[in-house]
Amino acid sequence: MSRAEQVSYDDMRKRLNDSLKRFVPAEFINRLDSVVIFRSLNKNDIEQIVSLELARSRSAYRTQPDAPRNSRGPVCAGGTRV
Questions:
Q1: What is the dihedral of CA 21, 23, 29, 34, to 10 degrees?
Q2: Residue 25 clears pLDDT 90, i.e. is over it
Q3: Is the CB of residue 78 less than 8 Å from the CB of residue 43?
Q4: Long-range Cβ pairs for the range 70-76 (8 Å, 24+)
Q5: Quick check: 43 and 77 in contact, CB under 8 A?
Q6: C-alpha to C-alpha distance for 5 and 39, rounded to whole angstroms
Q7: Distance between first and last Cα of the chain
Q8: DSSP class of residue 40?
Q9: Least confident piece of the model among 15-19, 21-25, 61-65
Q10: Contacts of 37 (CB under 8 A, 6+ apart)
Q11: Phi (first) and psi of residue 34, to 5 degrees
């Protein structure tokens, strides 16, 4: 994690904790073991996931799915829309 990402994560964690304190009763917050914060996936993350899943499919079905490297772009681009 780069320095900029760490600062962004720390800021997001602080804002989330502040929001929790404003909207959630302290009795409930005290019962939580932890709050997990996930960062958004970027295009590179999604490309890695697609590659891993294709490799898993190859091994599970012992075949080579027709998914050349250049065809992964459209699949990955679709995954970044919310």
A1: -80
A2: yes
A3: no
A4: 72/47, 75/50, 76/43, 76/46, 76/47, 76/50
A5: yes
A6: 9
A7: 24
A8: P
A9: 61-65
A10: 9, 12, 13, 16
A11: -165, 165
Please enumerate in sequence order all residues whose Cβ is within 8 A of that of 12, keeping only pairs 6 or more positions apart, or say none. Answer: 37, 39
Domain residue limits, the chain:
1-39, 40-82
Look-up: residue for tokens 């780069």? Answer: 2
What is the Cα–Cα distance from 14 to 25, expressed in whole angstroms? 17
- Residue 13 has a CB neighbour count (10 Å cut-off) of 12
* Residue 23 binned pLDDT confidence (cut-offs 50, 70, 90): very high
Query: What digits encode the pLDDT tens for the residues 34-75?
Result: 888 887 788 888 889 988 888 888 777 766 555 555 666 666
